[in-house]
Here is the input.
Amino acid sequence: MSSFKKAQKAQRKTHKERSQPSKRKRLGLLEKKGDWKKRSENYHFKEKRLKALYEKARNRNPDEFYHSMINAKTKGGVHVLEREGSQYSTDELKLLKSQDLNYLRTQVTIERKKIDRAREALPLMSEAALPQRKGLLENKHTVFVESRKQVKEFDSATFFETAPELIDRKFNRPKVQDLESGAAVFGADQKSMKKIAKKRASAYNELGERIDRLKKIETVVKELETKRNLEGKGRRTKFKDPANPQQVVYKWKKERRK
Here is the structure.
């Protein structure tokens, strides 16, 4: 029965919604029932809310008092609550900052271990190539020859001792000897090769993101360490970092401690 109903619905004519007539284009889009319903619900919700607030204001007791009113006042009809002083002492704040610093140092160690594991699983690659992680990574293999004649007669398949069908592969490119002896399996289709390439690109992308995250965390750790050192004693000199002019560096004078 359900299949008959589905077939019946498929044969029905699809009715398009009526648009705004050309004479009324200046009034904008034609409001549909769904649009009107949302507007109506919003209007009635605000109307009920205002009615309840008016009722609450009429029935308010002028002698009503709460202890929280001592630290509260109104400015221009807006309720403002005065903030109290810090509930933590200086020593407690230092302890909280040190706990944050320890947490970030732990995260740095965890990220470094994850990056090392990812690098071991992936082929060796420099960090300079990691920002190009969107899409498939392009590698180049340069071959040097003696003369221009050899350049014209150069055959990639013969030089790498592999089949011409496998010359475009960047990895898993067996030699002709292995193919003839059966030591290597030749038969990975183009679809599976694309899947493998996509997984490799995704892995490189994840590795690059982890390296970026590690750099950001290390920057925050340095800032927190600098703030903690500034709270301590000792003469210091402030100057700009030559490598990064926007960054300020502090250098403390060496003191002899007994």
